[in-house]
Queue: 2 jobs
Job 1
Amino acid sequence: MVDLKSQTPCAGRVPLRVGPLSLTEDTPEHMTAIAPYIGQDQALSDALKSAHGMAAPGTGRMTGKSGARALWFGQRMILLIGPEPEAGLAEFAALSDQSDGWAVLRLEGAGARDVLARLTPLDLRPAQFRRGHTARSDCAHMAASITRLGDEAYQIMVFRSMAATLVHEVKIAMGRVVAQK
Amino acid sequence: MRLTCPVCGERDRREFTYSGAAVALERPGAEAMPEAWDDYLHNRDNPAGVTRDLWYHEQGCAAWIVVTRNTITHEVLGATLASEAARAGGGR
Ligand SMILES: [Zn+2]
């Protein structure tokens, strides 16, 4: 038996630092797409709460805390990030394992919003896109999930196959924002 | 150009993919006459004025939506989920 070594999507490309900005990778143990069956939204939310401690997020919102989060992930879709999903959830929703499918990056530091604004058409004004808000949008022409984690901290997710491109694009934008200061 | 996705709110046009006239939601019944299928599959109006089109929020929530807009003024008049429009019988 060959002992294969697993690699994270952004291995060898991050962490990056440009001035006050940093780009790091988050590597959650599990990521699971949860698509609630019609009419089962409340039952799913209750099950999620008792199994993992957070209710289902509303549209464009995130629930839970670092280590176990539920992210709104599109129309009638939730992404459970961190814990292995309790089997009972399958009664109320279709579950599909996405653990190795997405690159999860964290962009943080003064000017992080300006960096992101160069890459996505989302309205990122702090009063519009608040902490805990999330959106599916375009990031450097890639289908992305963008979440505001803190004052100047954002999570950016793209398909794993696009990880290198995303890091490349964010790195360039970080350099340009810092050069302008 | 910005479109208001019923799920996500107002978003940039580049997040959406255009499909065509919302007539695609009005599929004839199996027993319909060939003329009805001809209209459904091939014949499209090219209205100067209000038109209803299907758009896909591809770089967004992945919803199909029906957008009503005016081809003369470029005004976007509204948008509904295609699933709801279809359930309401084509949504007209
Ligand atoms: Zn949408």
Job 2
Amino acid sequence: MSTKLEVKNVSYEYSPNTPFAASALTDVSCAFEAGMITGLIGHTGSGKSTLVQMLNGLLRPVSGQILLDGRDIWENPKQLSRVRYRVGLVFQYPEYQLFEETVSADIAYGPKNMGLDGAEIDARVREAAEFVGLEADLLDKSPFELSGGQKRRVAIAGILAMRPEVLVLDEPAAGLDPIGRETIFDAVRAYQQAREATVIIVSHSMEDMAKYAERLVVMSESRVILAGTPDEIFRRADLLCSIGLDVPQITRTMMRLSELGLPCRTDIFTIEAAKEEILRLWGKERENA
Amino acid sequence: MLKDITLGQYFPGNSILHRLDPRVKIVLTVLYIVALFLAKSMLSFVFILCVTVLLVLLSRINLRVILKGMKPILFIMVFTMILNLFFTRGEGEPLVHVAFVRIYREGITTAVYMLVRIVCLLAGTSILLTYTTSPITLTDGIEQLLAPLSVLHVPVHEFAMMMTIALRFIPTLIEETDKIMSAQKARGADFTSGSLLHRVRALIPILIPLFVSAFRRADELAIAMECRCYRGGAGRTRMNRLHMHIRDYGALVCMVLFGAGIVVLNIYTSRIGYGL
Ligand SMILES: Nc1ncnc2c1ncn2[C@@H]1O[C@H](COP(=O)(O)OP(=O)(O)O)[C@@H](O)[C@H]1O
Ligand SMILES: [Mg+2]
């Protein structure tokens, strides 16, 4: 297992030297493993969006380093655009940045900036649209005619078409219905598996994180306070609650069952695992009876 | 970042200037500007500088912030100074005479006066108005000052409402522009290099989403206002009425004295023949 992207002692402040100066990151360090989906969770205002904008060089750390494959991305600021193609960042509510006349032209904006030739761009647009499940007949429509969920998928396809090695998404499922959420997360996972990409997802939903993330990084008040596997993180329910987060509902259910005296495990955070555990308990009860 | 532009921004605070009545502050600003343009002599400019420094101190706003707010117009300042320096013709011998360049004593003084005037104009008006008055209070003040005009069927309330909305949305739109710019940069947009045409073209991916979202916001706001039965100014009452306090009258008196002071200084210096 190797580290793809590393954040080393990074600090950042908005509007320095004004009355509005606000420290958004304080000595943040964390590492993102190659080929894994890492979830970044934290209360609103904890600095998640600030951190992800550091990862592709949109914001420059006041101090500290961002290492991509072991090299500081600010080593040569002229090469930053190269970094931005390698680390694809999908902003929160990305549907508000669509501007082209057709969906396919909008998806092609990134690849075009990369200087690819027409055939290659075409192939990438098709591939990206397929990842996010956009039907081919939508490609010639205006992006402004689409539904909210479809627009969101077009915007994500616009990043996927650049074939980034690292895909970063800031709350990609915010404001979508359950099916919309699932479509997006499935698309992200499909891309990760097809390209062996490293994925970083900012999210508020512990359920989604339990389902998709292989690693979690927890932020609170501009610091990273925990990092590890979902197992290790969701076991710290008290700490999570104290910083305004939660554990998945199903974990809470299992904890409650255990409080009620049932000998069940509480380190469970997907419905499937819970089902197995409950069936196991039930089977034991029947044996005893 | 665009957000760091401080000119025209409001800095919340509780200084005496923050607490003055907005109507008074608008009148003060007008008087202050008139006084600035009345000033003609060295002494009066020194006097203006002192008063402006006093205003800065009274507002309790960091001097660095105020200076930073002037950065956008630094170019205009330098340009004005250079024009005045080289193109003012004086009476005596030029101080410097190289080829076609002639600099007179009058040129130097005019250039310096111009600089003081611009700096004070910006610092004074922004401290009196924008830095220390919230946009909402400011438009309230304007509405009340202009209220007599409604007799002449001038739509004062509608005008004030338009201003309130515009001011309210400036920061939002700036923030939005910042966000859209970052998002397009993440897709490889480049706004800083290439030919002029290239740079203008690079703005399209920013302007289109910005307009789309501005129209969407306008729509949403109109619906929200309608839902709350907004029908314009007739018969509207207000929760916070403006009241004049002693400090407001005091401020007016001070400003009139300031204007008078400048006129007196002008006359005095022209008497002793130390004009320019
Ligand atoms: N553009 C900005 N200007 C000034 N302060 C900001 C800006 N963006 C975020 N902040 C501040 O930085 C902190 C972290 O914000 P952010 O990274 O957006 O948190 P999150 O994404 O976790 O909600 C917050 O306190 C927020 O108010
Ligand atoms: Mg955020």
